[in-house]
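Now read the record:
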Amino acid sequence: MLEPVPVRVAEPEPVPVPVPVDPVPGPRLVPTPTAPRKPRLPLPAPQQPTEALYAAAADLLAGLPRTAPLFLLSEEDVRGLVPGVAAWLERGARPDVVRAAITDDPPTPLRHPAKLLRHRLATLLPPPLPAAVPVVPLQNCDDCDRAFRSSVPGCCRGCRDARAYVDEPGLISA
């Protein structure tokens, strides 16, 4: 039987331990924006705020979950959105119209109902009501007692024209 012959093996060289190196900051991998973001429209506010207007706006917002369960808002959200709803109400929008405009056709899933309401209140704001046309009161004609509209008392157009015709010299020959 042959015995194995021992072979001499060289001792392995010690492997140097790598020294930790601070990572070199490389370029940030951020996607370039495709288009600049539009600035957010500010939440509208009423021109002449009143306590009654704010109360009606708060009631509308607090009652949204009755008709649109997705729009359950916190107290803080309601306080933040009240001026926007008040601006709509001040411009003559009925509460049911406001409710429909801000809650109809929500995206699914709806993650931030207050942000959606803020966006819709700002972007869908109706135009202000036109100035009221002044009402000219009715007067009675001093001559014929016919009713006519005028801001000052006097004669109606027919009597004024007749007086002007009579007062013209040379038109009536006697």
